[in-house]
From TrEMBL, chain A:
<keyword id="KW-0456">Lyase</keyword>
<keyword id="KW-0028">Amino-acid biosynthesis</keyword>
<comment type="subunit">
    <text>Tetramer of two alpha and two beta chains.</text>
</comment>
<feature type="active site" description="Proton acceptor">
    <location>
        <position position="51"/>
    </location>
</feature>
<dbReference type="InterPro" id="IPR018204">
    <property type="entry name" value="Trp_synthase_alpha_AS"/>
</dbReference>
<dbReference type="InterPro" id="IPR013785">
    <property type="entry name" value="Aldolase_TIM"/>
</dbReference>
<dbReference type="GO" id="GO:0004834">
    <property type="term" value="F:tryptophan synthase activity"/>
</dbReference>
<comment type="function">
    <text>The alpha subunit is responsible for the aldol cleavage of indoleglycerol phosphate to indole and glyceraldehyde 3-phosphate.</text>
</comment>
<feature type="active site" description="Proton acceptor">
    <location>
        <position position="62"/>
    </location>
</feature>
UniProtKB/TrEMBL annotation, chain B:
<comment type="similarity">
    <text>Belongs to the TrpB family.</text>
</comment>
<dbReference type="InterPro" id="IPR006653">
    <property type="entry name" value="Trp_synth_b_CS"/>
</dbReference>
<dbReference type="GO" id="GO:0004834">
    <property type="term" value="F:tryptophan synthase activity"/>
</dbReference>
<comment type="function">
    <text>The beta subunit is responsible for the synthesis of L-tryptophan from indole and L-serine.</text>
</comment>
<dbReference type="InterPro" id="IPR001926">
    <property type="entry name" value="TrpB-like_PALP"/>
</dbReference>
<keyword id="KW-0456">Lyase</keyword>
<feature type="modified residue" description="N6-(pyridoxal phosphate)lysine">
    <location>
        <position position="100"/>
    </location>
</feature>
<comment type="subunit">
    <text>Tetramer of two alpha and two beta chains.</text>
</comment>
<dbReference type="InterPro" id="IPR036052">
    <property type="entry name" value="TrpB-like_PALP_sf"/>
</dbReference>
């Protein structure tokens, strides 16, 4: 499966004239059992693709919400092997929803590229986003992921000009992630007007579906993005909903899944 | 002094075009920053080959910083150890009290050339923060300095200095509140303010071209040393020694001597509570292994899962879990040797130098001083050792007073 699982999901959505709802959670936040419940729930409440963050001690492109999620996960003792085990557990109950690992370079370097790529393939991970690995440094990792049939998914940003775009789309598979604001995750709102043109440029260059993320906080904005891109990514809002449920008595995942469900519906109905 | 030459290269002539020093260095940054970093690399390529750029740099070093800094024979320390002659390269006499200003002068000129209107920086001990604040005041650019909350606490005089100079100091509470966390926060600022902001990195680490650029601004230390020792002694030293955190003062001294094979090169890492104490030191080379952090591949303090450790050193300027990639390369190739000094040994050296030489050294530099006796003895009488006295210790008196107090009450 792997890359094919991503392609199949976008083909199905295209046939239905729907944009993809892409959700993000941090593995092990606040513990792995909750993460499993959230993953299961996300797939049931309309997530078409799930990005699973693996924690890093120094997440330099994250805003405070996801920084804190990584801190909670590490404090709970989450290891990368457990993140892979979590992915396997999810695969047992869902064979179709693409799972994308998202994180930073050092834990990947620490495992070694071939071992990391193999673990992805063995545990049903379909794609990988490594935030601090630009194309200039990605050859070794891309070779290993290609060999394991796992997609290396690139972030493209408002600072990427035409020349840079050509570099960025090389050796990319599955889809491309357009980061709609220059900044850290979850802080600034994206401006839908400026996104539309950028999405078109990236689609033309990559010949792949383009999902848009960073700064999507409301169903209205998610729907707007769904009308101009192939998918909308929501992360910080979900992670924040989880964080706010931590002190409560109800299951931690209730609020996250409720939020995800509303956003998923907004994305799926946007083109009607 | 004939310092008007373009940047010096040596036999290994690194980094390569990809910013690599052998297996180390490179450019590991989020995509939002890539165009900026590449643009910076291009601007640096032009500037470093432009004599007018260097003329302005050297003029400022002479008239604003007060260079050249003296090379001083530390006679009583030499007698104390009874080995080779020990010379101090007096970087602590520079304006702002440390070597950091050499780099800031170069980078502010580059930032001006690039049309940037806002400067950000990270700082540990506050020396780079003060130097950044100083050049920003002089060149009338707004400056924001990120500083770990713990460091704000232990380096209060420097925080006050930065404020006086018109800089905004932002305390960073993430992590342990030290240099690593300050650097994360500076990078987040840069990612968010890409359009107008120049990131003035304070050490020869981080993503290409910073390790090369900061080194080239700091090699003024080694070039002057070479000329001065030839004037004073008529020959090259037998060894050069400097403390290493990120490693800018050390690479500045070392680099011009790399091709001189007779010169031993010794870096001194911060061993904090001891190398055998887990997460209790900041010795990335002696107690870490290669990984990727803050834009470059280098030796890092990390756990089995690749998570970065906070580390520890009594010296805020050395309290960093990584090291510049050129040091990683010199370590891997064996051209330089890296030894280490504990907090306690650094405190002893701090006091010894104050009493014997009438110079209060920075805690950072005290780490090098703690190892210079052995080196001088090893080189032997008739030999010459040059130590980089990279900064003055006034900023550290509260930390030292408190540490000595604790020691005394425990006796």
């Amino acid at each position: 499966m792997t890359v094919a699982r991503i392609d199949a999901r976008f083909a199905k959505l295209k046939a239905e004239n729907k944009a993809a709802f892409v959700s993000y959670i941090m593995a092990g936040d606040p513990d792995l059992e909750t993460s499993f419940n959230v993953l299961k729930g996300l797939s049931e409440t309309g997530s078409d693709i799930i990005e699973l963050g693996f924690p890093f001690s120094d997440p330099m492109a994250e805003g405070p919400i996801i920084q804190l999620a990584a801190e909670r996960s590490l404090k709970a003792g989450t290891k990368i092997a457990q993140v892979f085990a979590l992915a396997s557990r999810f695969r047992e109950i869902d064979a179709d929803t693409p799972l994308i690992l998202m994180g930073y370079m050092n834990p990947v370097e620490n495992m070694g590229y071939p071992a990391f790529a193999k673990a992805c393939a063995d545990h049903g991970i379909d794609g990988v986003i490594v935030v601090d690995c630009p194309p200039e440094e990605a050859d070794g990792l891309t070779d290993a992921l290609d060999a394991a049939d796992v997609a290396l998914i690139r972030l493209i940003t408002p600072t990427s000009d035409e020349k840079r775009l050509k570099t960025l789309v090389k050796r990319t598979k599955g889809f491309v992630y357009y980061v709609s604001v220059a900044g850290v995750t979850g802080v600034k709102e994206a401006d839908a007007q400026s996104i539309a043109g950028a999405v078109k440029r990236v689609q033309d260059a990559a010949q792949l579906p383009v999902v848009v993320g960073f700064g999507i906080k409301t169903p209205e904005r998610a729907a707007e993005v769904a009308r101009i891109a192939d998918g909308a990514v929501v992360g910080s809002v979900l992670v924040d909903a989880l964080a706010k449920s931590l002190p409560g008595n109800s299951p931690i995942e209730t609020k996250v899944l409720e939020t995800a469900g509303i956003l998923a519906q907004a994305v799926h109905n946007a083109r009607n | 002094m004939s310092t008007e030459t373009p940047v010096q290269t040596n036999r290994y002539n690194l980094p390569d075009a990809k910013g690599r020093f052998g297996d180390f260095g490179g450019l590991y940054v989020p995509e939002t920053l890539m165009p900026l970093v590449l643009e910076l690399g291009e601007a640096w390529e032009v500037a470093k080959n432009d004599e007018a750029f260097w003329a302005e740099y050297h003029s400022l070093l002479k008239h604003f910083v007060g260079r050249p800094s003296p090379l001083y024979f530390a006679e009583r320390l030499t007698d104390y150890y009874g080995g080779a002659k020990i010379y101090f390269k007096r970087e602590e006499l520079n304006h702002t009290g440390a070597h950091k200003i050499n780099n800031c002068i170069g980078q502010i000129l580059l930032a001006k050339r690039m049309g940037r209107t806002r400067i950000i920086a990270e700082t540990g001990a506050g020396q780079h923060g003060v130097a950044s604040a100083t050049v920003c005041a002089k060149f009338d650019l707004p400056c924001t300095v990120y500083m770990g909350a713990l460091d704000v606490e232990r380096q209060k005089p420097n925080v006050f200095r930065m404020n006086l100079l018109g800089t905004t100091v932002v305390p960073v509470t993430n992590g342990n509140g030290t240099l690593k966390d300050a650097m994360n926060e500076a990078l987040r600022d840069w990612v968010t303010n890409v359009h107008d902001t120049y990131y003035m990195i304070g050490t020869a680490a981080g993503m290409h071209p910073y390790p090369e650029m900061v080194r080239d601004f700091q090699t003024v230390i080694g070039k002057e040393t070479k000329q001065q020792i030839l004037e004073l002694e008529g020959r090259l030293p037998d060894a050069v020694i400097a403390a290493v955190g990120g490693g800018s003062n050390a690479i500045g001294l070392f680099h011009p001597f790399i091709d001189d094979e007779s010169v031993r090169i010794v870096g001194v890492e911060a061993a904090g509570h001891g190398l055998d104490v887990y997460n209790g030191h900041a010795a990335s080379l002696n107690g870490g292994r290669p990984g990727v952090l803050h834009g470059n591949r280098t030796y890092l303090l990390q756990d089995d899962d690749g998570q970065i450790l906070e580390g520890h050193s009594i010296s805020a300027g050395l309290d960093y879990p990584g090291i510049g990639p050129e040091h990683a390369h010199l370590f891997a190739t064996g051209r330089a040797k890296y030894v280490y000094t504990t907090d306690k040994e650094a405190l002893d050296a701090f006091q010894l130098t104050s009493k014997l030489e009438g110079i209060i050294p920075a805690l950072e530099s005290s780490h090098a001083i703690a190892r210079v006796g052995e080196l001088a003895q090893d080189v032997g009488k008739g030999g010459i050792v040059v130590l980089n006295l990279s900064g003055r210790g006034d900023k550290d008196i509260f930390t030292v007073a408190s540490a000595i107090g604790q020691t005394m009450s425990g006796m």
